Amino acid sequence: MDTSLDRSFGPWASTGRITSTVNARYQHILDKATPLVGLRWCLWVLVFFLYGVRVWYLRGFYIVTYGLGIFNLNLVIGFLSPQLDPETEGPALPTKGDQEFKPFVRRLPEFKFWLASIKAFCTAFCLTFFSVFDVPVFWPILLVYWLVLFMVTMKRQIRHMIKYRYLPFSFGKQTYGAAGAKGKGAADK
């Protein structure tokens, strides 16, 4: 079937079709992986472990690892932060009894956090195959600097959470007492 697109772009038209097919399959895999939270994070641990073993085996690429750590720290901050910052947008959670309850909405959803982190680890893993990225540095200084940066950033984030009274984690559906679950007749007995 020869279309006008094929005639005007020649061999590039088939490249566009291949790209759209690959993108559709990639999106299909992501859609299937969305509800599999535990499996996704097991994959993350595996990729993290493989990257760590590669860097340990090569005894290098500490600058790449440091950049990866900074990127993942930025992702964690986005994951722990509310979508509407109370400092700039006003309080999103009710502060008085007559205000409407608004649930915590993350600035960076869990799935996007996982996906960006996996992509970053895969990119960093690929960078370890090019010696130009193996800049000689004294790695303990980078590690100490990253740890200090992590502690300062987390301290600021925790203070923000305490000041505006939000908790970025919820563990399952809220349950009520046994009397509420059995109905009114059971509570009267």
UniProtKB/TrEMBL annotation:
Q: Where in the cell is it found?
A: Membrane
**Topology class, membrane:** Multi-pass membrane protein
Q: What is its main location?
A: membrane
The record ties this protein, via InterPro entries, to:
Rer1 (IPR004932)
Q: Which domain of life, per UniProt? A: Eukaryota
The keyword Transmembrane helix is annotated on this UniProt entry = yes
Q: Which GO terms describe its biological process?
A: protein retention in ER lumen; retrograde vesicle-mediated transport, Golgi to endoplasmic reticulum
Q: What are the record's GO terms for cellular component?
A: endoplasmic reticulum; Golgi membrane
- UniProt keywords, alphabetically: Membrane, Transmembrane, Transmembrane helix
UniProt entry tagged with the keyword Transmembrane: yes
Transmembrane residues, as ranges? Answer: 37-57, 111-131, 137-154
Q: Which family does it belong to?
A: Belongs to the RER1 family.
Q: What does this protein do?
A: Involved in the retrieval of endoplasmic reticulum membrane proteins from the early Golgi compartment.
Name this protein carries in UniProt: Protein RER1
Organism for this UniProt entry: Pycnococcus provasolii
